[in-house]
Fold this sequence. Notes:
This protein is an all-alpha fold. A hairpin with a 2-residue loop joins strand 1 (3-6) and strand 2. The protein contains 11 helices and 2 strands; from the N terminus they run ββααααααααααα. It folds into 2 domains: 3-62, no CATH class; 70-269, MetI-like (MetI-like fold, Orthogonal Bundle), CATH 1.10.3720. Strands 1-2 form a two-stranded antiparallel ribbon. The chain is 76% helix and 3% strand. It has helices spanning 17-43, 47-51, 53-64, 76-104, 112-127, 130-141, 145-169, 173-181, 186-217, 229-237, 241-269, and strands at residues 3-6, 9-12.
Amino acid sequence: MPVAERDGLKVWQRRTRGATLTRWAAWLVFLLVFLYCWQQISERTLWIFVLDSHKQAWDLGVRMTPPRWTYIGDLWGPLWDTLNIATLGTVLAILMATPLAFLAAKNTTPHPLIRQVALILIVASRSINTLIWAILFVVLFGPGVVAGVLAITLRSVGFIGKLLYESIEEISPSPVEAIRAVGGTPPQVLTYGIFPQVFPAFVGISVFRWDINIRESTIVGLVGAGGIGLQLDASVNSLLWSQVSLILLIVFILVLFSEWLSATIRKAVT
């Protein structure tokens, strides 16, 4: 039953026959679509492996325990590469996304056509997954850290640009109008009227994206784009499961550290 407001009080009302039939028809369509999708998935699934998965998981867990602690000395270099990929990728993305955000925001763009171009670039960056970017750059530049940095950069531009231009559009117009009223130039309006209002959001978005990039930089190595993912891929292919468990543990600790650091910075700024 829907709720209506009458004299400030909530009043329950019985649905009309048409509304009830529409509601049940929508649920029926949803159920039919779900059953059709489930049928398609079932036809392409080898259920014998699914039913046996708990045994495989137990066997894999036994082979991964205990971690091969002596292997940790070989992980410091790849771990450092992972941090560099995430950090450099984030910095480059900030440098590229910040002007795009100001061009995409309604209240700072110089022309509607320029705004549409900026929005297209932001959407294009967000529409392609990091691993796909990594594969493309590995083909162009060869395996290594450069491909990872560029993949992280182009994926992050859309994320940072979208959130930042939305923050710019939500600023209060009063400081901007006051600076313009006393003869402020466009750079002065930007520096003293707009940027101070979006600075907390700018820092929060940047640090949050760096936190995400720490996670993503651990997997770009699976396609040859550098970082600790290279060791993870090599260990999996060699069936060295004790090394795999150690790498996963190191990645987990790294992600926890990045989460704590980003939360601390955001709290300090906001």
